[in-house]
Amino acid sequence: MSKILVDTSVWSLAFRKTRKNAESEIIVNSLIKIIRDFDVVITGPIRQELLSGISDSAKYEELREKMSIFSDHPIYTADYELAARFNNECRKNGIQGSHTDFLICAVAHNNDFTIFTLDNDFSRYSRHVKIKLIK
Questions:
Q1: pLDDT (tens digit per residue) in 11-54
Q2: Residue 130 — left, alpha, or beta (φ > 0 → left; ψ -120 to 50 → alpha)?
Q3: What is the percentage of the chain residues whose pLDDT exceeds 90?
Q4: What φ, ψ does residue 67 adopt, rounded to 5°?
Q5: Quick count: other Cβ atoms within 10 Å of Cβ 132?
Q6: Beta carbons within 8 Å of 90's beta carbon, 6+ residues apart
Q7: What's the predicted TM-score (pTM) here?
Q8: How far apart are CA 72 and CA 15, in angstroms?
Q9: What is the rounded average pLDDT of the residues 67-92?
């Protein structure tokens, strides 16, 4: 099995105090299994997204500390270049996306990672760029 690049949306769900439904619990349990199997991958931009917007400094530090056990996968020039190509390809086909999303796609593609996300935008990207998603 390939490594799993876990997107911000999944991390955010896992760290919420309350979860809305059984599906949320299934997703969190899947993340726990990925972590236990040492298959989890995170990048600096995902870490930044996860930590951004936390105005309570104690909560920020608590989350920062929890996430500190995971090392950031390196991002190289080839990843940024492929992210730009993926962005261009999707835009040509009428699909907009964030620079971080396309960087996630590029890192996953270049390293044969599967992306674990709750963000439906990635399904749209996958119609035009070669990425693997957990469904």
A1: 999 987 676 788 899 999 999 999 999 999 999 999 999 999 89
A2: beta
A3: 90
A4: -75, -15
A5: 15
A6: 96, 97, 102, 124, 125, 128, 129
A7: 0.94
A8: 19
A9: 98
